Amino acid sequence: MLATASKDKTVKFWSIAGKKLEDFKGFNSGLIGIWFSRKDNKFAPATSGVTIPFWQRKGEKIKIFNNTSDCIWSVIFSQDDRTIAATRTTEKAVKVWSVDGNQKAVLKGHTDGVNSVSFSPDGHIIATASWDKTVRLWSKEGQEIATLKGHSDGVHSVIFSLAMTVKR
Prior knowledge:
By secondary structure, the chain is mainly β. The chain has strands at residues 2-5, 11-14, 20-24, 31-36, 42-47, 52-56, 61-65, 72-77, 83-88, 93-98, 103-108, 114-119, 125-130, 134-139, 144-149. A four-stranded antiparallel sheet has the order 4-5-6-7, with no helix packed on it. The chain has a four-stranded antiparallel sheet with strand order 8-9-10-11, with no helix packed on it. It has a four-stranded antiparallel sheet with strand order 12-13-14-15, with no helix packed on it. A hairpin with a 4-residue loop joins strand 5 and strand 6.
């Protein structure tokens, strides 16, 4: 199954053969991206609005995370599906919540907008990529571990390899 998110305020689910399986409509703003939980068919679209709607695939809205002040650029679930992290385009930070809506951490340290966020395979490290030309590594509790420098322009994306073990 594939999921697509559009500026037309819809999420669509497709079979690999190209058959449309479901439509979700009624989002308040255009969609920038979509992310699935790993285990239980939950999804969270990134929106050009200021909320993160968190849905069950069967169409039930589970939660809305709305304590943000800017466009949601990237949303990701931790490997155990218990935590969500979201980036915003101009706030220069990442907010981390438990899936029940409790804010766990705010990752602050970038000097420009954060474009991407990723959890390590074991869920203990969070990586963030920014227009400030750096990638930062954080503990799941929100303490900065390292700043990776070397890009000569903004970093658009960061992801951990699932084939590798993270060494700490």
